[in-house]
Amino acid sequence: MLVDLLLGGLCAIMFLPLTTGYCAYSYGRSFWLWFALGCFLPIVSFFVLFALIARRQFNPGQQLVDEAKQILAQAAVKKG
């Protein structure tokens, strides 16, 4: 009974650091760095990462770079 409670609590506590790490990794940032930040500062790190991702997504220059990367990747697949 106590072991189940501890495992459930551990899973609940690790949800936010895992989510933060996964989001960071998805956008080219270090999973382990953001996972560690999520463990020590769970809510703060999540909102900081959210702000960094939002800033990148709302930057028109970055959107053009991302589109160009996709076009080049598709051209490389067709060529190769």
Number of strand segments: 0
How much helicity do the residues have?
over 70%
Identify low-pLDDT runs.
none
**Fraction in beta strands:** under 5%
What is the alpha-carbon Rg in Å? 18 Å
- Ends apart, CA distance between termini: 57 Å
Shape descriptor reads elongated
By secondary-structure content and strand pairing, the structural class works out as mainly alpha
Determine the number of helices (DSSP H or I, runs of at least 4 residues).
Answer: 4
Q: Largest sheet at a glance?
A: none
Q: N-to-C SSE series?
A: HHHH
Q: What would the average pLDDT be, to the nearest integer?
A: 87
Keywords: Membrane, Transmembrane, Transmembrane helix
Transmembrane segments: 31-54
Give a quick precis of the structure.
By secondary structure, the protein is mostly helical. The protein is built from four helices and no strands. Helix 1 crosses helix 2, helix 1 runs parallel beside helix 3 and helix 2 packs across helix 3.
